[in-house]
Every structure is written in structure tokens, then in C-alpha cells.
Amino acid sequence: MADFTLEIDADGVGVITWDVKDKSMNVMSRDSMALLNELFDKALNDDAVKGIVITSGKDTFAGGMDLNVLAAIREEYADDPAKGLFEFTMNGHHALRKIERAGMDPKTNKGGKPVAAALPGTALGIGLEVPLACHRIFAADNPKAKIGLPEIMVGIFPGAGGTTRLVRKMGAIAAAPLLLEGKLNDPKKAMAAGVVDEVVPADELLARAKEWVLSEPKIVKPWDEKGYKMPGGAPYHPAGFMNFVGASAMINSKTQGVYPAAKALLSAVYEGALVPFDTALKIEARYFTQVLMNPSSSAMIRSLFINKEALEKGANRPDVADQKVKQVGVIGAGMMGAGIALVSALAGIKVVLIDAKQEAADKGKSYTADYMDKGIARKKATPEKKDAVLSLINATTDYAALKDCDLIVEAVFEDVSVKAEVTKQVQDACPDAIFATNTSTLPITELAKASNDAEKFIGIHFFSPVDKMMLVEIIKGEKTGDVAVAKSLDFVRQIRKTPIVVNDERFFYANRCIIPYINEGIRMVREGVEPALIENAAKLVGMPLGPLQLTDETSIDLGVKIAKATKAAMGADYPNDEVDEVLFWMFDEGRLGRKSNSGFYAYDDKGRRQGLWEGLGEKYAVADEQPDLIDVQHRLLFAQVLEAVRALEEDVLEDIREGDVGAILGWGFAPWSGGPFSWLDIIGAPYAAERCDQLTEQFGERFKTPDLLRDMADKNQQFYKRFAQQAKAA
User: Fold this and answer.
1) Pick from 33, 85, 97: nearest CA to 62
2) I need a labelling partner for 526 at 20 to 30 A (CA). Which of 170, 334, 515, 607 fits?
3) Spatial contact of 601 and 612, defined as CB atoms under 8 Å apart
4) Burial of 298 (0-12, 13-18, 19+ CB in 10 A)
5) CA-CA distance, 273 to 267, in Å (whole number)?
6) At what angle do helices 629-649 and 656-667 cross, to 10 degrees?
7) In Å, what is the CA distance from 464 to each residue of 364, 467, 470, 554?
8) pLDDT (0 to 100) of residue 566
9) Quick one: pLDDT band at residue 565, thresholds 50, 70, 90?
10) Which residues of 59-73 are buried (b: 16+ CB within 10 A; e: fewer)?
11) pLDDT at residue 240, as a whole number
């Protein structure tokens, strides 16, 4: 069945229904846009049709554009991809402009047929840009629906007229959160913001839209009227000028200049506001094409949309039967265990939450109660929903309660003997369940020795806080079986998070890469590099936190604990004595990070950062001559990406898609780059190897070019081409 269908009712309303049959949510493809254009022409040219309603055959409207289309256009127009992308974008503009003008006389604005959009639920991306081209937007009163333009989150901006129309409809300042932050609203908030026109009961949605198109309404958009003035003022108006100055400052504050889409969006808005509407659409299309041609945007789309979606759909799942979790046991009701219980119950999974003392188990359950209370206060949840979620959690000390669990997630202290004891207790009570240990550092193969069946033993590394962090790292031990992997992947899918699967090695993948980043920052402090330069260099290259602030956030005593354990394991090969000098000194000074309101940063009594601690400079004097910004940034970035390459070489990583997605979601690796492997593809393997040689000569063997990268440099290869079979979905 076609993605769009047209039916004309007895009253003369042409109803165009969007329903992509093989998708849970409608997405726009090249063929579906062409079909929409064709059916609209048919309705427009049919004298029996008095008005048109565009709606959906699903309980949502649409989830946006199929971004695989963009990659297909690049291949189709390999000799001149910019031309292909610009023509594709302009074709979309022409189709939506036809809906907007709806047959009106171009000179008099007379005639034309009213077009309403009827949104039963979520409308995102082009799923909102199509309605914005209609004359009135009706949305069903569905509090779960999300309406907005989230394109900026994957490295592009609304390029099908959404940018130009939203700004002309609302004004630059009002539109800024929707465009520059990708803010999503429920229908009522979208109406309050001025995005949709009416929110109506779901069972009246189509009837109300039909009623409106038959009422002979005025359909000329404000920007097509003579004398139109932009809300809030155009750039040449005193008020509008200040708005754009403020918007520019806000963008640079939030993006540090490393996200090309944000700057291009603001340029399209500013320049578009100075010219007639149709010219503004052409400007938008040019900037949109410019962004699509930027390797940063291509990498972000690939990692944050295509690869992420593929992993969430089970791209690397073993071919075994469905392993959906019916009941999960969570051992340990501390912050991590409480978080795992929360996200499981929110997903509708029964939870047995166990701790050594009933008081501790109850406290773990109260974490969910507090979370739901906050949701109720923000009107994101109801008391009934809270009761339903809490009813799924059985907080107890009794291991016998685990008898019906098919998955156990152990989240006790990071201690081999403690975890071994818990493993035995669980297996006595629940011998057939898959056993997953939540750990960030301890080897899974070693921990599995306490199990009666190593095939059913696996590692699951949740990131803290569990309810906010989207990544889950699944770690296979030497004997972990396919069913355990599939069970873990299916569980992660149920709790709506993104999984990566890695093999067992010290620190697995995420911590293996982030610890060198932290260490490099601390090394530079010891060398006399200005701490503010270290921190700002990191932020200016897209890292969410500088290495010193990140150390404070994760706690200095944890860093000391990891350092001691690593040194004990590595012996004479341990490479970080100079880092430990600084870290152990901070620990001895009682500066444990944010938890003690004292670390690399100073804090006030309420725990708010007050700037870098002055005592740092007194202990490690700042050198008179400071390094170049790029050198500092490269030390921080290569410290991470070289570990990612080594993880791939050593088969810790099996798929570069997992390496890129895991880096961005796990520790915030410069999202603009698309991840470590995408970044290496952007700068090129030959340059990366050359730069590694320079850094090795200056700073030591930790920057030595991995054999894999050296081979790729010699052959001038890219990761996403060399490993194309792995990344075929990208």
C-alpha cells in the first residue's frame, strides 16, 4: 500500500492520509514526498474538492525524514553531491509551497483551497514542517505526543521550510528554543508557544479539521500579505537587531563554535529575514546544503541517527529466540541498583529489589517514589502512574523472592569477593536466570568463576545516573553464551536505552578511553600548563566537561582507587606515576571533588563551582611559556581516540559503530565529530599518523601510532570504508 492515500468524502473534503505500513512511525522518503505532491495536485485540481485535510493513519503523525535518503543522494550525485542535495531540498520547498499557496492567485491572493493538518500524535522534523505549510494545524489532546524540530540534535537544522516558517510565524526569540535546542513540546504547550493552532479531543480531531476547511476561512499566510512584519522585529529593526545579537551570543555560548548547523541556522534566519519569503526559502536551502556537505554533519547523522538506531534494533544481536525480560532481580539497592530498578519499572517490568537490610531496600524503592513525585510536580506523571510503577517493585531482603526472575542484575560494591558471594546466593535461589554483573572495571571472566554456568554470566555496565544516561555497555566474558547476550540486549531495548557489546578487557571500552583523557589533563597540570587552558581547550573542541572538572564530578578518591588497582595489576608496566603524584596529593589534602566541595575546583557552601582552585597553581607553578591551543586539544583528543583504535585492534570492540555511538553517549566525546572513528576519518589517517608521531616524540609512547592506524595511513583508508561490512547500515 502507498505511503499516502487520498479519499474525498461526501462533503467535498479531500483527506490525504499518511501511513507507511512497514514503519511504527511515518517517515518521509523521496518517493513518499513525490506521492504527496501528486495527490495534492489531484485534490487541488478536482472541482468537487472544497478543502483538504492531511492526517495520519497511525496514532502519531510522523517522525521526520528518512535520513538514509541523504546518503543515497550523495551516491547518486557522486560527481556533484552539493547540486543533488540542493535540488532535492528545493524540490521539497516547491512541494510544500504548493500546499501553502493552495491554488491562490499569485497577484491577488484570491481563491485557493483551505488545507488543514490533523495531528493525532507526535510530529517531528518534516512531520512538523509539512503541517507548518498548511493553513491551520489541529493537534489531538494527547499529552504523550511530542511536537517539534529536533534536527539540530543530529547535526543538521530544519531544511524543509521549518526554519523560515517558524521564525516568520513566531519571531526569532520565540522560535530559538525550538530551532537551536530542538525543544519538544506536548500539544498544549505547542499551542501556547504558537506552533499549533488548536488542540482538540482525539475523537474529534478529523471532524474539527474538516469543519474548519468547509468554513471558507481566510488562508493567506501573514508573510504573503502586504505589509507583513516579523514578530519581535526584523534584523534591521532596533528590537530585532538586539534579538539577533542575543541569539548569536547564545549559540556561541552553547556550541563553542564547533557545531556548524547552529551557525548555519542562524545565518539562514538572519539573511532570510531581510528578503521576500520565496528568496528566504532558497537561502535556507543553500545553508542546509552547506551543512549537509560538512563532514561533521554527515558524521553526526551517521552516528546519532543511523548507527544508533541500528544498534537499538539489534544490529549485533545473536540469532536466538526472543529474550524479553518478564521479571528482573536487582541485587543492591544503592544509587546504581535503585536506578536500574526505576528504569525497569518504568518500562513495565516486574522488579525484585534486594539489599542486605530492609531499610536499605526500602530506601532504594523510595528513589522511584521521589522520581515519580518530581514527574507529578512537573505534570509529566500522575499519582495513578506513580502507584502503578511502585507496585512493580518488591523491595526485600529475601533471595527466595527471585525464583521467578529470568534476569538478575547485580549492583553491589566493586569488590570481587563481595560479588562472588552474591553470585552464589542468587544461583541457589534462581539457578536458571541469566546473571548480569554491573561493573565498570572488574574483569567479567574473573567474576564468572563464581558462577555455576559461565555461559549465563555477563557484564552490564550502566552509566550514572541510570535514568539519564542513554548508553549501556554489555560485556562478554570468555565463556558468555549467545542467550546471555541476547537477553541483555533485549532488556536494554525494553528500558529504552542504547546498547553496545564489547569483549572482556581491562576497563572494557568506555572507561578505557575516558581515563586517558582525564590523565592527560592531570599530566598537563603537573607540567605547568595553565589549568584554565586545559579546561577551555577541551570545551572548545566539543567535550562537555574539561578533564579536571570531570575528575571532580566522578570523585578524586575513585580515581585514586582505580589507579592503585591498575598499578597492582600492571606492575612495572604501569604508565601513570606522574598522574598519581598529582591525584594522590589532592587526595591527601582531603580534596575529593564535588562530593567534598573541594577538588581541582573551589566550591561554595551550596556546592556551586567558583573557579579553579588557587592552591593548584601554588603546588604546580604555571609555566611562563604556554602550549598552543591546538596542541592541548590534540593531546586530549588523541589520548581517547588511540585507545578506541587499540580496542578495535584487540577485538574489545567488534563494530566501529559501537565505538562511535558508545563514545558520544557514554562520555560525551565531541558529538560534532560523530565519535572517535568518524573524527579520524574527518582528519584523515595519514595526518592522524603523522600527528601521533609528533606527539610521541614530544610526550611519550602513549601516543604511539597503533599498527592498524599506521596501515590505514599507508593505504590512505577510512574506517567507514575499510570496515564497510561492519558499518553497512551506516
Assistant:
1) 33
2) 607
3) yes
4) buried
5) 10
6) 130
7) 15, 8, 10, 10
8) 82
9) confident
10) ebbbbbbbbbbbeeb
11) 67
The partner residues of 62 in beta bridges, in order of sequence, read 123
SS3 of residue 728 by DSSP: coil
Query: Residue 548 CB: number of other CB atoms within 10 A?
Result: 25
Please give the average per-residue pLDDT across 196-221, as a whole number: 96
The pLDDT tens digits of the residues spanning 93-120 come to 999 999 999 999 999 999 999 999 999 9
Predicted confidence at residue 259, as pLDDT, reads 84
CA distance 171 to 159: 17
Q: How far is CA 367 from its chain centroid?
A: 25
Task: For residue range 28-74, list pLDDT tens digits in order.
Answer: 988 899 999 999 999 999 999 999 999 999 999 999 888 888 888 98
Number of H helices, E strands in the chain: 31, 19
- Report the chain's mean pLDDT, rounded to a whole number: 92
Cβ atoms 349, 494 nearer than 8 A: yes
In angstroms, the CA 600 to CA 419 distance is 33
DSSP state of 222: G
- DSSP string for residues in 496-550: T-EEEEEE--TTTTHHHHHHHHHHHHHHHHHHT--HHHHHHHHHHTT-SS-HHHH
- Smallest CA-to-CA distance from 392 within 459, 324, 470, 340 is with 340
pTM: 0.87
b/e map 411-446, b = 16+ CB within 10 Å: bbebeeeebeebbeebbebbeebbbbbbbbbbbbbe
How do residues 273-284 score in pLDDT, each as one tens digit?
A: 899 999 999 999
The torsion of the CA quartet 483, 484, 486, 487, rounded to 10 degrees, works out to 110
Quick one: cell of 594? 564535588
SS3 30: helix
What DSSP string runs through 232-273? T--TTSHHHHHHHHHHHHHHHHHHTT--HHHHHHHHHHHHHT
Residue with the three cell numbers 521521589: 370
Four-CA torsion 354, 355, 357, 360, nearest 10 degrees: -100
Helix 547-554, helix 510-527: angle, nearest 10: 120
* Three-class secondary structure of residue 288 per DSSP: helix
What are the CB-based long-range contacts (under 8 Å, 24+) for 180-184?
180/152, 180/247, 180/250, 180/251, 180/254, 180/262, 180/265, 180/266, 181/152, 181/254, 182/148, 182/149, 182/150, 182/151, 182/152, 182/153, 183/148, 184/124, 184/146, 184/147, 184/148, 184/150
| Residue 5 φ then ψ, to 5° | -130, 155
Please name the amino acid found at residue 334.
Answer: G
Say if residues 353 and 361 touch (Cβ distance below 8 Å).
yes
pLDDT over threshold 50, residue 729:
no
The catalytic site residues sit at: 440, 461, 473, 511
Confidence category of residue 726, pLDDT binned at 50, 70, 90: low
Residue carrying the nine cell digits 545516573 = 465
Three cell numbers, residue 102: 493552495
Strands of 123-124's sheet in order across: 123-124, 147-148, 184-185
Burial class of residue 549 (count of CB atoms within 10 Å of its CB; 0-12, 13-18, 19+): buried
Percent of the chain at pLDDT exceeding 90: 78
The pLDDT score that the predictor gives to residue 728 is 47
DSSP class per residue in 148-174: E-GGGGGT---TTTHHHHHHHHH-HHH
